[in-house]
Amino acid sequence: MKVVAIVGSPRRGGNTETLTQIALEEIQKKGIETELISLAGKKIQPCDACHACDKGECHIKDDFDAIFKKMVEADGIILATPVYYGAATPQIVSLISRFYGVDGQPLKDKVGGPIVVARRAGKNFTLAQLMFFFMIEEMIVPGSTYWNVAFGLGKGTVLKDEEGVSTIRHFGQKLAWLLEKINK
């Protein structure tokens, strides 16, 4: 089994990546392989609704195809983003938008969930924004002790949000538990 976590922050090593690593550590404790993919420095253009994909291939040549392939091959998927202007980052939104033209439901019945980091506000909308993706893709989302959110501004400050860190640890544990139950 494998879980792929995609961090939509445009900077490496920030709070979103730190929190995502915490979830992945819990998943690894159950012997499940993990991979963190940072969108920092990657080019993923949003879907332009040209419908070229109806003929089998997207005309946009960027980093989407490699990430898409890893998502399809994975058993579990985490999408993580900081809050930018009350919403998910353009990087993660572009990734999600490209599923518009994907044929079928390649993520159906996979396990996954969101992780959101906020300075103050916007976390609820951003969490819902990512949840809509998981629901539309017919994925299975485990719960946690609270919503999968934490607070932080400067690098590393998210670790001071003890409840947020605990919630993400529990999310990682539940995701691993659910994967084990499904794959028995």
Topology:
Layout: E1 2-7, H1 15-28, E2 33-38, H2 64-73, E3 76-82, H3 90-97, E4 111-118, H4 123-136, E5 149-151, H5 162-182
Parallel strand pairs: 1-2, 1-3, 3-4, 4-5
Helix pairs in contact: 1-5
Considering the chains and any ligands shown, give keywords for the structure:
globular; 5-stranded parallel β-sheet; single chain; alpha/beta; 184 residues; 5 strands; 16% strand
Describe this structure in words.
The chain is α/β, with parallel strands linked by helices and 184 residues long. The chain has one domain: Flavodoxin domain (Rossmann fold), CATH 3.40.50. It is built from 5 helices and 5 strands, in the order E-H-E-H-E-H-E-H-E-H. Strands 2-1-3-4-5 form a 5-stranded parallel β-sheet, with helices on both faces. Strand 1, helix 1 and strand 2 form a beta-alpha-beta unit. It starts with a strand and ends with a helix. 41% of the residues are buried.
CATH superfamily: Flavodoxin domain
Alpha carbon gyration radius = 16 Å
The number of distinct helices, counting runs of at least 4 residues, comes to 5
Share in β-strands: 15-25%
Any low-confidence stretches, pLDDT <50, length ≥5? none
Distance between the termini: 11 Å
Q: Main beta sheet, described?
A: 5 strands, parallel
How many distinct beta strands? 5
CATH architecture term: 3-Layer(aba) Sandwich
Shape: globular
Strand order in the sheet with the most strands: 2-1-3-4-5
Order of helices and strands: EHEHEHEHEH
CATH topology: Rossmann fold
CATH C-level class: Alpha Beta
- What percentage of residues falls in helices of 4 or more residues? 25-40%
Structural category: alpha/beta
